[in-house]
Amino acid sequence: MKFSAVNPATGEVLAEYETESLRGVLDSLSSVRSGFSGWRALGVDGRAGFFRDAAKVLRRNRERYALLMSSEMGKPIKQSRAEVDKCALTCDVYAVRSAEWLAEEAGEGDGRHFVSFEPLGVVLSIMPWNFPFWQAFRFAVPAMMAGNTVLLKHSNVVPGCSLAIREVFSEAGFPDGCFRSVICGHEVIPEVIPRVDAVSLTGSVGAGVRIAELCGRNLKKCVLELGGSDPFIVLGDADVSVAARNAALGRTLNSGQSCIASKRFIVDSSLVEEFTELFVREMESLKVGDPLRDDTDVGPLATSQQLSQLVRQVDSAVSSGDRLLTGGRRTGSRGFFFEPAVVESSMESVLFGEEVFGPVAPVVSFRADDEAVRLANSSEFGLGASVWSSDDGRAASVARGLESGVVFVNSVVKSDPRMPFGGVKRSGFGRELSKYGLREFVNVKGVSIYRSSGSKNSLSE
After folding, report:
1. Is 284 labeled as catalytic in the residue annotation?
2. Pick the catalytic residue: 91, 178, 222, 259?
3. 225 catalytically annotated
4. CB within 10 Å: which end of the chain, N or C, has fewer?
5. Cα(405)–Cα(375) distance, rounded to whole angstroms?
6. Which domains does the chain have, with CATH numbers?
7. pLDDT, tens digit, for every residue of 46-77?
8. What single-letter DSSP state applies at residue 95?
9. Distance of alpha carbon 41 from alpha carbon 95, whole angstroms
10. Positions of the chain with pLDDT lower than 50, given as ranges
């Protein structure tokens, strides 16, 4: 079956692709299954050199990969370049740190005890379109450095990126069978999951539920990074101009299409009027347009479906009493562009309750810090959060009360290969990145060695 990749800035077809049959997908799976033993046998130090080479390939082809991302899903080109750079950095970090992070740990007790971290086997990766390179590398680098091999089922919104990622590993000289990407429909997934050893999904809550059910039925380990509705909390002692400037950045990064974008703006009542005025000004100063121009801040939404969903959410919010302060309309004669919006809202609003995947910012106020925490925690999501304050102790106190996987103080939320990343509640479970992500897809094996004298262990089952 054929499908088209569409340029969201123009609505024009970029290329047509043929989806692979189940037989073709299973052949790729067989390849990475066969490659596992040899890849594992290389050891951490042996695998590290390949990732150093992958980083070089990424940097050498930076402009081409950035252009591909921006063309397929509309990310502003300057952000696409930064995405390639981040993938390369992650390869370098894991090449340097993995030996330390996977080192055997000594245990306690009579005899000799140690804990080793050994790969599980083949890991299926199901990835979305919004960060076409980063999502895949964020998962693949730690999974493969741990000794696993990978089968990537990427979003069919970005098929060119899926093939380009496969190219990175090939050009870097990775052994055949370490990594394969397949272009296929979701209908093959139930056939693939019983044949792999673990699954990593980044996607919607609905997709996460379906994958978790399949993994549970087949007793497969899975990591789920799902939706987010991150609170952006401005305390009463915050620098308002700094907060407003970063609010615009946090809400419109990747044209607002990020799981960890700032999505609910919770502002102290003493500052809310000034903050909102400055926030509106910042959002109106952003340039919306051609994602291939270096001066563009906000590109199109990735698909016509994304645009329709965003229009529905804004219309529903306004009809229910929210007040649109700026933007909030489809713009341009072609493509899937939407004007960044600031909305005076309430916690009953659809903009506060649902995940909003686009540049729309609902603002609500609070009177006490504990109320801010309550408003932030009222969401079913728990991925990231940011707190803005001039008092580190006060900000840390609020941060500790937030139900989220990551919290940033005086910074927008971002991922870093040296820090764990993931969510709680309906934002999923498991961790990516850092040593914690490296150890998600391993067998944590305890080994106990006693003298062969026949002495008995003092511990019973």
Report:
1. no
2. 259
3. yes
4. C
5. 17
6. 2-226+427-447 (3.40.605.10), 230-409 (3.40.309.10)
7. 999 999 999 999 999 999 999 999 999 999 99
8. H
9. 16
10. none
